[in-house]
Amino acid sequence: MSVEPAGPLVDPIEITELCSRYGEMRVLERITLTVRPGETVGLIGLNGAGKTTLLKSILMLMRPLAGTVRLFGEPHESPSSRARLAYLPEKFQPPGHLCGLDFVRMTLAFHHRSARRAAISVRAEQLDLDPSVLNRRIRTYSKGMAQKLGLLATLMTDLPLLILDEPMSGLDPKARMRLKQQLAGCRARGQAVFLSSHILADHDELCDRIAILHRGRLDYVGSPAQLKEREKAATLETAFLTAIEDAPSPKPLAEALNG
Predict the structure, then answer these.
(1) Measuring CA to CA, how many Å separate 48 from each of 27, 51, 72, 99, 196?
(2) Cα dist. 37→4, 5, 74, 122, 153 in Å?
(3) For the chain: N or C, fewer Cβ within 10 A?
(4) Under CATH, to which class is 9-84+161-169+189-259 assigned?
């Protein structure tokens, strides 16, 4: 198993002064954030904070209002900049008429990769997915099985950047543990991971740094340990809640955009 080399050591994600809005409603305000090579960064925020909007803006699934995003040193508008990343969306809905094995092979082919059935089965077991279900139509899968399938296909790309939106969704405790082991392996192999999750204990365990997105702004970027120390909190959950309670109110949209 090998990770595709990213060439010279450039940051997989570099976001500068990113702004986004729907109509007159501010969603993201001057977001600046970097994900470094081999780093796992977690995105934390309440529902509606703009986490999925930020991920979609990075991926050009929606066009930002202002600011820049560079992927591996290239503007994110360039298709080649996105060729070295794999993305698992929050609402993962694979085509039900395919069998699991065909879906994995189709995903790998999209990224110009391939794998033998034996290798796919081994990786499936590592995510607590019974390899025998790969022969079944996806429409027969439970939510948890479908999520494991999406994770399997994404992880098997072995690309230098993985963007995961709520990857623990639908997973039981055993599967969550297995996924955390796989993500630790990604870091050991030098892959960068940018993930959004509501499970703050997982951020504490997995992430080199976390970014708190609140009211459309980044209120904190740093290690989980540093945030707990700053807020004098025993858990990341308590530190997060204290941090957002202390955050100042946002400026009106026009003032924010005009400086």
Answers:
(1) 9, 8, 28, 34, 13
(2) 12, 11, 15, 27, 22
(3) C
(4) alpha beta
Encode pLDDT of 117-160 as tens digits: 999 999 999 999 999 999 999 999 999 999 999 999 999 999 99
pLDDT of residue 254: 41
Q: How far apart are CA 36 and CA 194, in angstroms?
A: 10
**Amino acid 148: pLDDT:** 97
* Domain boundaries along the sequence of the chain: 9-84+161-169+189-259, 92-159
- Cα separation, 42 vs 37, whole angstroms: 14
- Three-state SS string over the chain comes to CCCCCCCCCCCCEEEEEEEEEECCEEEEEEEEEEECCCCEEEEECCCCCCHHHHHHHHCCCCCCCEEEEEECCEECCCHHHHCCEEEECCCCCCCCCCEHHHHHHHHHHHCCCCCCHHHHHHHHHHCCCCHHHHHCEHHHCCHHHHHHHHHHHHHCCCCCEEEEECCCCCCCHHHHHHHHHHHHHHHHCCCEEEEECCCHHHHHHHCCEEEEEECCEEEEEECHHHHHHHCCCCCHHHHHHHHHHHCCCCCCHHHHHHC
pLDDT tops 60 at residue 255: no
What's the mean pLDDT in 20-41? 89
**pTM of the predicted model, to two decimals?**
0.89
